[in-house]
Amino acid sequence: MSDLIVPSEHDAFRQMVLAPDLLDIARRVEHVRRMQGGRRWYDELRPRLRVARKFLVEITDRTLPLVGQAERFLDDVERWVQRPEAPLPRMDRIRELAAATLREGLPPVPRTALDREARCHRLAARPWIGRTVWGCPLGWLPLIERAEEQLRRFGQNGDRLWHTYSMEERWGRLDWTTNLSYPEAHVIQCAVAASEVTCLACGNVGSLHKSEAWHLTLCDAHIFLEEHGPPEAIGKLAYPQRTGA
Ligand SMILES: [Zn+2]
């Protein structure tokens, strides 16, 4: 991975790459706590801790906000994995910081249907993305743009062999399947993880909202609209049509 990013931007990027792992570890700790056991989830924590540690030690700027918190969090989880009677690691702060890190450096959300269209056309012109981009809701388009830019600038072997199979919302998160491998696949992984904390209708901070019919990641205002607004209201925001088009 260190080959992927020039040194000045390496730490910020490494910090972002660490975030999905931290969220995954927090999710597993929470699951084990709730299930009071869940042996498999528990066993799978150890290798994940090792991977997160590996990313963490490679960050040279120790003053980055997520770094200190991540060190403490991983220490706590390791202690708890070794001795389950140790206090449960605190997860609110690390979740909050990891989510904020995943949303760093995003371009603004499209303001109009026309703006979205123009920006989708730009992304669709990248052969490895193509028409799949039209499946991406408006609020998540900046996630794709950021990833595309990171890959264009820092990808190792050019994009000739890259391919996107699908890009769409599924069960509340971005389902972006590609043939990219590591290190480039990290960039895709960060976009997917960022979609779990980003409203698909407006791009603000969001969380998973489950109704009988749908699982959608929405901000508070759009959860309200989904529950009390007209049918299709969220769909019209996420996939706007130009009036008169
Ligand atoms: Zn929203």
What does this 3D model show about the protein?
It is built from nine helices and four strands, in the order ααααααββαββαα. By secondary structure, the chain is mostly helical. It folds into two domains: 96 residues; 126 residues, no CATH class. Strand 3 and strand 4 form a beta hairpin. Helix 1 runs antiparallel to helix 2 and helix 1 packs parallel to helix 3. The longest helix has 29 residues. The model has no long low-confidence stretch (mean pLDDT 89). The structure holds zinc ion (ZN). The site of zinc ion (ZN) has 8 residues, from helix 8.
Topology:
Layout: H1 7-35, H2 39-57, H3 65-82, H4 92-102, H5 113-124, H6 141-154, E1 164-170, E2 173-178, H7 185-195, E3 207-210, E4 215-218, H8 220-228, H9 233-238
Antiparallel strand pairs: 1-2, 3-4
Helix pairs in contact: 1-2, 1-3, 1-4, 1-7, 2-3, 3-4, 5-6, 6-7
